[in-house]
Amino acid sequence: MANDQLPILVFGATGRQGGSVARALLKAGWPVRAFVLDPAKPESRALQQVGAELVRGSFEEIPSVKAAMKGVHGVFSVLPGDLSAEDEVRSGTTIANLAAESRIDHFVYSSGASVGDQLTGVPRFDAKPRIEAHIRDLPLTATIIRPMIFMEMLVRPGFGLEEGRLISLIRPERSIQLTAVEDIGKIVAAVFADKPRFAGVTMKIASDRLSGHALAAALTEVAGKPITYARFPDDVLAANADLAHMASSLEGGPLADHVDLELMRELNPDLLSFRSWLAGSGRAALDAALAGGPGGSG
Ligand SMILES: NC(=O)c1ccc[n+]([C@@H]2O[C@H](COP(=O)([O-])OP(=O)(O)OC[C@H]3O[C@@H](n4cnc5c(N)ncnc54)[C@H](OP(=O)(O)O)[C@@H]3O)[C@@H](O)[C@H]2O)c1
Hints:
Layout: E1 8-10, H1 16-27, E2 32-36, H2 42-49, E3 53-56, H3 62-68, E4 74-77, H4 85-101, E5 106-110, H5 123-136, E6 142-147, E7 149-150, H6 151-154, E8 165-168, E9 175-179, H7 181-193, H8 195-198, E10 202-205, E11 208-211, H9 212-223, E12 228-231, H10 234-238, H11 241-252, H12 261-267, H13 274-279, H14 283-291
Parallel strand pairs: 1-2, 1-4, 2-3, 4-5, 5-6, 6-10, 7-9, 8-12
Antiparallel strand pairs: 9-11
Helix pairs in contact: 1-7, 4-5
Bound molecules: NADP nicotinamide-adenine-dinucleotide phosphate.
The site of NADP nicotinamide-adenine-dinucleotide phosphate has 25 residues, from helix 1 and strand 7.
């Protein structure tokens, strides 16, 4: 049940995950305090228009984070994907430390589904597990979510769709689990609504699971023209350490773990299939990818 007095502070609220979380929390009846770098930017104004309180700050400016945490019930922490490993660990642990000092009731950290139980020794792959371990050691009621690869990542210019094919990381007969960013917010709202159930829980989250062949079938149906599926060639994977890491994680590592989609549906009855996402909020991204143009960023 939503606390009707104290807000939830949402980091990254002008971005994908934070934006989804802020909107879902508002819809669920929580007051939302959105931590934004620039209150004048259109994404910030749009949040304000749907009822969020804006606070200006940067997670690199500790006093601004401390001030934003005053009088809040919960914190949703997510960091941008373009930080160095060192900066990601520093900011992720600092936000959690400040939440513990501020005696936040419930802290939710969004990590990544490629996090496994073992460190890899590669700093950029180990930033999130190090932040997770730090959070677990703090006197803080926390829930860690690990979203699977975003549907948005597959449907971008430059991955073959403009030529009638999708090139991605799994073998055609293997399955991949995908998350619609808008589902992240609804699942996080369900987590904040039930602190006793989710205190101390680490949970992978996804919206759908489907094979390469099924990805092609869904794309073909929604695009209204044939789309085939192929895995990145081995030499391309060999030349790109990040893609190779994800591909091997999808074959037998943490990205191959099966997310309990029944649990996901219980937490979010509107859980999106890849097909329904493509036909709905993913439609614009699909159309842009089919039209080609400059490649998107991760
Ligand atoms: N790609 C995937 O498939 C996938 C899957 C699972 C997890 N992830 C992880 O998801 C995370 C990224 O989440 P996202 O995609 O939601 O991020 P995003 O859309 O890039 O948004 C980043 C947010 O952080 C804000 N921000 C940047 N610098 C800041 C600062 N110094 N102080 C305060 N706020 C700042 C940005 O504000 P502005 O809008 O003002 O710049 C924006 O709101 C990464 O850790 C990534 O590894 C990705």
